[in-house]
Write a structure and sequence with these properties.
The protein has 8 helices and 9 strands. It has about 240 residues and is of the alpha/beta class. It has a single domain, classed as Alpha-Beta Complex (Spore Coat Polysaccharide Biosynthesis Protein SpsA, Chain A), CATH 3.90.550.10. The radius of gyration is 17 Å and the shape is globular. It starts with a strand and ends in a 5-residue tail after the last helix. It holds the Pfam family Glycos_transf_2. It comes from Winogradskyella marincola. This is Polyprenol monophosphomannose synthase.
Length: about 240
């Protein structure tokens, strides 16, 4: 049994899923994985099912009826994890933008240091992003600066999606009241944890743009992040949830 669960949300990741799973399971530290698949038409879930025979007890699958947003997929995964005995719960992408070799860094920060949340950060030591166009770097970096300005959140990479949570953080945050589904979901989770007084530590990582498959970035996701931040701040003035 492992004390750590890596949640990987998927939609049409057939080109990446087997390779990323094998990379996670090859780590010296034993990690379990929960794939949350949003009814991918390319057969991603079927590939995971086939691999479950090889990784019995380590690889789990949660299938949802439709594509309903990254945030909703993670909330479903968090609730599943809380029903189990995992002490550390991770967010990680399927496309190798997050290096599985860095999982242990995030784990150690929470398991052996005093972090409640460890964030794999692109901006804590300069800008450590590979193969992104300048426009996207400026958008992402600018968004994090904007979040700090509006909310006071002391995190340099607030939109990061490579994260380790201690179980107590997910138990404390009211997951049913998490509102956003895209980039703003990542901001909202960190902001709620910050308001609850949890310690958030940023671990420098190198972020690489995906090589296979298609990005899920859209204009609506960016818009949600921009206007959602103001909504989060205003709501926090009147509630602690």
């Amino acid at each position: 049994m492992s004390d750590a669960l890596v949640i990987i949300p998927t939609y049409n990741e057939i080109e990446n899923i087997e390779t990323i799973l094998r990379a996670v399971f090859s780590q010296e530290k034993l990690f379990h994985v929960l794939v949350v698949d949003d009814n991918s038409p390319d057969g991603t879930a079927d590939k995971v099912k086939a691999l479950q025979n090889e990784f019995s007890g380590q690889l789990h699958l949660l299938q949802r009826d439709k594509k309903n947003g990254l945030g909703a997929a993670y909330i479903a995964g968090f609730n599943w994890a809380l029903e189990q005995s995992y002490d550390f719960v991770f967010e990680m992408d399927a496309d190798f933008s997050h290096n599985p070799d860095d999982l242990i860094k995030l784990y150690n920060a929470c398991a052996f240091d005093d972090a409640d949340i460890a964030v794999g950060s692109r901006y804590v030591k300069g800008i450590t992003v590979v193969n992104w166009p300048l426009s996207r770097i400026l958008l992402s970096y600018g968004a994090s600066r904007y979040v700090r300005l509006i909310t006071g959140l002391k995190v340099k990479d607030s939109t990061a999606g490579f994260i380790c949570y201690k179980r107590k953080v997910l138990n404390t945050i009211n997951l049913n009241k998490v509102k956003f589904v895209g980039y703003a979901f990542q901001i909202e989770m960190k902001f709620k944890a910050y308001k609850k007084g949890f310690k958030i530590v940023e671990i420098p990582v190198i972020f690489k743009d995906r090589i296979k498959g298609k990005s899920k970035m859209s204009g609506s996701i960016i818009s949600e992040a921009i206007f959602g931040v103001i909504s989060l701040k205003l709501k926090s003035l009147f509630t602690k949830s």
